[in-house]
């Protein structure tokens, strides 16, 4: 994992940059900046995992660079270690108060630098893993409802700004209670995971999202997808799930596990609650019409 992590070295001294780059290159992707302005530009464009930041630089000191990093949502969470010739306790305290993760005094020791970098990058990996797990449903490994809510709001705002379509589908496994009653809950969990994997495979474009909304209900979010294309995808997914041929002898619908899907595409002036309610209403219609089908809201 270390090879994938990026470290930005910002120092106005060319020798210091070269020494640190040579130390880090065998294990990390290294970016270099010769002053504060360049450091901010590199950080914004590349979003490194860690910045080794000199304090004393001519155009903008490291303290100001850190203030600006923390003020920008794109760079606010980047870990920063000051590497500085300012060795007074009050200088170190100022850096830590501004949000630095650590402080290394110059002249630096190579072993200490590598140990501190490894420690803080490990912490970055652990934090990101926890953030990832907070957004993942433990059973299906799809996005969970919390993550769906976040992405739904963001994609809704983007669709409004760009005047692009946004489609939403709700998918419910037909007669799932009867499946669990007949085959047992472990089998039900396996079936739900199989449905989730298949659904996830159908939404692979950037921005698309498959999430577990609750129980046996999944939700598909499809930005920049009009009603015709979204409905077509939902119907192909329903057919693919039929072809999994997961036996369901207790189903009144078919001898295999099936799904009902309701969907809607964003209308002018509609908010997220109304769009979700429309998809939910059409899921209800799909169930009332006999299940194992897709019912999509007609567009004006």
Summarize the structure.
By secondary structure, the chain is an alpha/beta fold. Helix content is 48%, strand content 18%.
Overall number of strands: 10
- Integer-rounded radius of gyration: 26 Å
Strand content: 15-25%
C-alpha geometry: elongated
Helix content: 40-55%
CATH class identity of the largest domain: Alpha Beta
Major beta sheet, strand line-up: 2-1-3-4-5
**CATH architecture type of the largest domain:** 2-Layer Sandwich
Termini separation: 50 Å
Question: Number of helical segments?
Answer: 10
Quickly give the structural class.
alpha/beta
> What low-confidence regions span 5 or more consecutive residues with pLDDT below 50?
none
Quickly count the domains. Answer: 2
Q: Major sheet: size, sense and barrel closure?
A: 5 strands, parallel
Mean of pLDDT: 91
CATH superfamily of the largest domain: Reverse transcriptase/Diguanylate cyclase domain
CATH structural fold name of the largest domain: Alpha-Beta Plaits
Run of helices and strands = EHEHEHEHEHHEHHEEHEHE
Keywords: Phosphoprotein
Protein name: diguanylate cyclase
GO molecular function: diguanylate cyclase activity
EC number: 2.7.7.65
